[in-house]
Every structure is written in C-alpha cells, then in structure tokens.
Design a protein that fits this description.
325 residues; mainly alpha; ABC transporter involved in vitamin B12 uptake, BtuC; globular
Length: 325
C-alpha cells in the first residue's frame, strides 16, 4: 500500500512539473508559437531559447538545492539545517563577490569566466562546510551550528557591503543583477558547466544515501553495518557544497528552498524512507522552482525575493511546531 501511495504521489508531482514547465515556457511579454521552440529561423527563436534556458536553470536548481538541504538535514539530524541557514549560500555569494569585484580589470573568454565563478563559489562553500564539521565535534548541541551559520551569513553580508562600497559601477551592477537570482541571464555555456557540476554532486549524493540510512540509527550501529563515517562526512560536505555553490554561482542565492522542500517531502511520505525522500525532494523541488519562476515573470520580482517571502513563514511555522511538540 505504501509503494502504491508513493507511486501515486510521483505521478501527481510529474503532472504538476509538466504543467509548470509548459506554463513557464509560455510566460513572457511575447506570445510564442510551437514552431518558435523548434525552428532556428523563426523571428522569435532567440526569445524561445531564453525561455528554454530559464526552464532548464530552474530544473537544475530544483534538483540541486533540495538535495543539498536533504543531505545536510539527514547528516546533522536537524530539520533547520540547509545551505542558506548554515551560511553555505552566503559564503558562496561572498566568494563570487570577490571574484566579480577583483576580476573587473581582466578579460576572459565566457567559458573560462563561468568556470572561475563556479570554482570560487565551490571553494568558499567547501571551506565553510569543513569549518562547520570541525566545530560540530566540539559542541554536543548541534543547534550551535545554526547560530554559527547565522553569524557567518551576517559577517559575509557585511564584507559584501564593504566590497560594494568600493566597487566600480559596472562590477556593482553585475553583482546586483547576479544577487537577484536572474535566471533569465543564464546562457547555454553556463548551463553546460552548471549541469556537469550538478551531475557530479548527484553522483556523490547517490553514494551517500545508503550510509546515511545507517547513520540515522546511530554512529555505533552504523559502524557495525560497515559504514565509514569519515567517508560519509566528506561525501556529504563535497556533494552538498557542489550542489548549492554551483546554483549560487550561476543563478544567484536561492534562499530557504533547501530547508522547505525536504520539510514538505517528509509531510508527503515516510521520513524514514531516505531513497524515496531523495526522489521526492528532487521532483517537488523542480515543481516549486518552476512555479516560482512563473511568479517571478508575472510579478517581475527577483526569484530570490520570492523564495524568501515563501520560505521565511514556512520556517517560522516549523520552529513553532517543534517548540510546541
């Protein structure tokens, strides 16, 4: 019966995702026909390409960010753990800011520039995750990590503000556009780099699920099952950092989705079934990001503003619910 319920949920979500993608492709100032998406000679073929890139960018974000949040929550056993709350997104943003502001005098090919943006974001997030795991051994109360993440986010925001104060106009404009989560600006070459990094992150995530199942039962039981906890730790660090930092690098800081989507997935199906939870996180994440992209196009609000307006009340309800429990 449970397997049937899971299949029913998947079918329903696939229908929602398909509908959201079709609507997203047709949202914009100009109405496109079917031929515009398949004919390069069409007058509106460039607009169609922009919309396809937008849909693909949101698809990758919907897969990567919830997976990153899911891995972190299962490893730390904390429903509030996520790339934005733990400061990973903020440090990745800070790394990108350093790159944008200090590379303004250098001209690089687009592909190389995209690669350096991605590398800077990933290095920043990996560094922070390593620091977080170091401190996690020092403190029994893992809620400290949440507080630490908030402090890191505040510090990163302050440093970015200082960089903005002294930045040249063009660099400042580039950073602001990036920080808004401008998914319309993602190019084919950027999508190619982003896709490769996301695939690597997903492969590492796949290898982490089985050890995470043992880890949820306790470290001693996990060791008795042959789980290498040290390997699991680094696998979670690298995969979650790759996934969240790559999206942050090319689409901008997408906040709170890494916390909210795993929460909804656990409401839809048994939290103990980690394989099914991972699949639900990716499909539900794609639907939510495609839906938010539609809202962004209609309202003209930046995508990260919409995710924050949605995510903050949900996280507040989660906190109140846990307190009452």
């Amino acid at each position: 019966m449970k397997n049937k319920n899971f299949k029913t949920i998947l079918i329903f979500l696939f229908i929602l995702v398909t509908a959201a993608i079709v609507i997203n492709l047709n949202i914009g100032f100009i109405k496109l026909g079917f031929d515009d998406f398949f004919s390069w000679d069409s007058a509106n073929s460039q607009i169609a390409e922009l919309r396809i890139n937008r849909v693909l960018a949101m698809l990758l974000a919907g897969i990567a960010i919830p997976t990153s949040g899911f891995l972190l929550q299962e490893y730390f056993q904390n429903p509030l753990a996520g790339p934005s709350v733990l400061g990973i997104t903020s440090v990745a943003s800070l790394s990108v800011a350093f790159y944008i502001f200090f590379s303004q005098d250098y001209t690089l090919p687009e592909f190389l520039q995209n690669g350096f943006i991605s590398i800077s974001a990933i290095i920043g997030s990996l560094t922070l995750m390593s620091i977080l795991l170091f401190f996690s051994k020092k403190f029994q109360d893992k809620s400290f990590l949440i507080i630490f993440g908030f402090l890191v986010s505040a510090l990163a925001g302050a440093v970015v503000s200082i960089l903005q104060l002294y930045a040249e106009n063009q660099s400042l404009k580039n950073y602001i556009l990036w920080s808004f989560g401008a998914n319309n600006q993602v190019t084919k070459s950027q999508l190619l780099v982003l896709s490769m990094i996301v695939v690597i992150g997903l492969v590492l995530s796949f290898k982490s699920i089985k050890p995470l199942i043992g880890n949820t039962l306790g470290s001693q039981y996990a060791r008795s099952l042959g789980v290498n906890l040290e390997v699991l730790k680094y696998s979670v660090i690298i995969s979650s950092s790759l996934l969240s930092a790559s999206i942050t690098a090319f689409i901008g800081p997408i906040l709170f989705i890494g916390i909210v989507v795993p929460h909804f997935s656990r409401m839809l199906y048994s939290p103990a079934k980690l394989w099914q939870q991972w699949i639900l996180n990716m499909i539900l994440g794609v639907f939510i990001m495609e839906f938010f992209s539609i809202v962004s196009e209609i309202s003209q609000f930046p995508i990260n503003v919409i995710t924050s307006l949605f995510g903050v009340p949900v996280i507040l309800m989660m906190i109140l619910k846990n307190k009452n429990a």
